[in-house]
Amino acid sequence: MEVKVKIDGIEKMILEGQTINDVLKAEGAEIPTMCYFPGTDHFPTCLVCIVKDQRTGRLVPSCSTKVAEGMDIITLDDDVKEARKTALDLLLSDHVGECDAPCQKGCPANMDIPHMNRLLAKGRFDEALKVVKKDIALPAVLGRICPAPCERACRRRMIDEPVSICLLKRYAADHDLGHDECFLPDMDPPNGKKTAVIGAGPAGLAAAYFLLQKGYACTVYDKNPLPGGTLRYEVPDDKLPKNVLDEEVEIIKKMGAVFEMGRELAKDELKNLRNEYDGVIVATGEDNADFDGLIKKHRSFIVEKNTHKSNMEGVFAIGSAIKPGRVAIRAVAHGKEAAYSLDQYLKGETIIGEPQIFTSRFGPMMQEEHEAFMSEADEHPRVDTVEHKGFTLEEVQLEAARCMHCDCREKVDCSLRANSELYGAEQKKFFPKDRPPVRKSYRNEPIVYEPEKCIKCGICIKVTKMENDALGLTYIGKGFDVEIDVPFNNPEFKIQEQTAIMCAENCPTGALTLVDNVEKVPFT
Q1: Sequence-ordered alpha helix ranges (H) in 255-392
Q2: Which residue among 351, 365, 399, 514 is the one 20 to 30 A from 290 at the CA level?
Q3: Which CATH number fits domain 194-346: 3.30.110.70, 3.40.50.410, 3.30.1180.10, 3.50.50.60?
């Protein structure tokens, strides 16, 4: 029997007995769900799939409410958005997990350090380099001169010493430079637009590296005879061998960059350059020229924070040209950010700089959490090596294995993260002052279970029930103290491996995840 319903103002005849969610999915509507699992009985727990029945004004969970004659369903309006946001705020109040590790947050370029470490520990050096070069244009250079803010943020230093992140990054990069065919990142097809970068120091080189990936032709101008800026002319050879710099510059040339060296631009040439090119990035370092039309204050160009947009349309400024300093990693990060901004400008999009996505955080590690975090790390002390020689193969795998993996392995396809970003959820709105300590359980290999990340959606319970696993997972306790576990906390419980994998693959938060998950790449 069919019933007449309205969906977003359009009348439809719908087969009776279906849930609103089933109908909407069949219609191609994107309705967020976090506790829904096809083919099983359903009881709503997350309430992220809320829709509104315009006829009654009631907000109802689409995953469990069946269509009825006369319904007038609104899938998205201000009331629905606010209800979904509140549901997510509440879920986040009971979610003690971090999307990105502190070391990644401490890196100005936001490199996914734990992912690199997992790959290096397994000897997968080519894949590790791809993770590095997603965010860093000159890893072999920076592996030698970076002051390592990431290591200051490393939680391992609270236990003994931080992971030697810079030397690990350097190993991945040097391993590639030693190959006849070096790694080149994927590049979009040429889009016919031309960009110019003024300055071939670390900021300018990074800007060119990322612009080329986005399909832009790129010409780099510099007053010096050779590219590198301060890297070449101020850093001693014993700290940064110039052949290393040359090899990384050569990679940018192979990507298609054209270098116009020995070209010191006069103050009136920026406007000419702007007429010749679709967009310009100024990376002239501290020794800035006075370009006509570009506002300066105290020898630095004035730009918009995060986007690097100057007062001149289509012109962006980065590095020491806007903030004097000698930290190359920050200059390289600026280059990436400005490339995003220029790309957005040339596409006619809102200029926001490098896109940011919602990130769950829970703050400092507690003393009682040391054991849980160290359960994923090798207890080997920090590898002692003469820094300028770098790591051996054996040393790099030992050191990478010291990583405690403070990040979430499922951050790429985490439903909680994606929906929190979509609806502007606020993690701290209902988050308790005294959070529970992080725990990790490896009782059911090949997965790791982190109870504090669990939002009690019940999907894993449905999976083990569907797979007929004896004494499958269930809810233990009541109210806010409820947890997912096995009846009687049976220490001998071990679900079938395939069932365990299904649980991990369908977990919406990374509370259950594959221990050996190194395949997924970070958000772009």
Answers
A1: 269-276, 328-346, 370-374
A2: 351
A3: 3.50.50.60
The CATH code for residues 2-76 is 3.10.20.740
pLDDT tens, position by position, 290-316: 899 999 998 899 999 999 999 999 999
Check if the beta carbon of residue 413 is closer than 8 Å to that of residue 504. no
Q: What's the CATH number of domain 415-514, 3.30.200, 2.20.25, 3.30.70, 3.30.1370?
A: 3.30.70
What SS3 class is residue 4?
strand
The closest of 398, 355, 332 to 133, measured between CA atoms, is: 332
Q: pLDDT at residue 204 above 50?
A: yes
Q: Which long-range contacts (CB under 8 A, 24 or more apart) does 503-507 make?
A: 503/447, 503/459, 503/460, 503/463, 503/464, 503/473, 504/447, 506/37, 506/459, 506/460, 506/463, 507/410, 507/459, 507/460
**Distant-in-sequence, close-in-space partners of 385: CB < 8 Å, separation ≥ 6:** 164, 167, 391, 395
- Are 324 and 297 within 8 A, CB to CB? no
pLDDT recorded at residue 361: 93
113-121 helix and 393-400 helix, angle to the nearest 10 degrees: 130
Q: How far apart are CA 377 and CA 156, in angstroms?
A: 9
Report DSSP letters for 112-177, one per residue: -HHHHHHHHHTT-HHHHHHHHHTT-S-HHHHHHH---HHHHH-GGGGTS----HHHHHHHHHHHHH
CA distance 234 to 236: 6
Q: Which of 274, 258, 208, 200 is nearest to 231 (CA)?
A: 200
The contacts found for 250-256 with CB under 8 angstroms, 24 or more apart, are 251/182, 251/183, 251/184, 252/137, 252/205, 252/208, 252/209, 252/212, 254/182, 254/184, 255/184, 255/185, 255/187, 255/209, 255/212, 255/213, 256/187, 256/212, 256/217, 256/218
| Cβ contact 216:147 at 8 Å | no
- Give tens-digit pLDDT for 360-381: 999 999 999 999 999 989 999 9
* pLDDT reading at 521 higher than 60: no
Grade residue 461 by pLDDT with cuts at 50, 70 and 90.
Answer: confident
